[in-house]
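Example complex used in Figure S2.
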Amino acid sequence: QSALTQPASVSGSPGQSITISCTGTSSDVGSYNLVSWYQQHPGKAPKLMIYEVSKRPSGVSNRFSGSKSGNTASLTISGLQAEDEADYYCCSYAGRVFGGGTKLTVL
Amino acid sequence: QLQLQESGPGLVKPSETLSLTCTVSGGSISSSSYYWGWIRQPPGKGLEWIGSIYYSGSTYYNPSLKSRVTISVDTSKNQFSLKLSSVTAADTAVYYCARLVVPATHDYWGQGTLVTVSS
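Predicted assembly (226 residues):
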């Protein structure tokens, strides 16, 4: 199973919205609604932000949302804040395959 | 509040076996709703799933590591463990343990432990 494909970096200004894509295949992302997204700040453990494509765990801001179309899942962050600057990883295939990660820079 | 804590040597010699333990507190490792897994992250790189185990002992391993990985569980101690044999410098990474909510969500993570492979 190959790693999922994410852009290496995205950036946006405070208040703007950004979207991070996660492309897999019909065997992983496209098969089930089981994509999750993780936020990781430097030196910290990953934090679950979205699960099962579009569900938010308790305590996660509603500025974070997820969606999926075909073999590509997306994470959208609206109203960007400085604290959103971090690395973001998608995950699929029953939690066994991660994306390469996307570094979000808040300008 | 569920907590996971990794423990084990921070330095392992090449060709030897890396051994880590994850202690779960604030919840039972024997719940039927969860798997328990290991994930690693080489310095400056992305996350890589190593494998997962059910409280019954059923395991799933990353095919690329399968020949060198053993994950076991000790329900009496509420712990699960990772052994990775024949390590090389490429196995240097921060190793995380995590809870996997069936079927597919890692919701709780340990803080991670850096393991360096060096002579």
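The two ends of chain A are 35 Å apart (CA to CA). DSSP finds no helices and nine strands in chain A.
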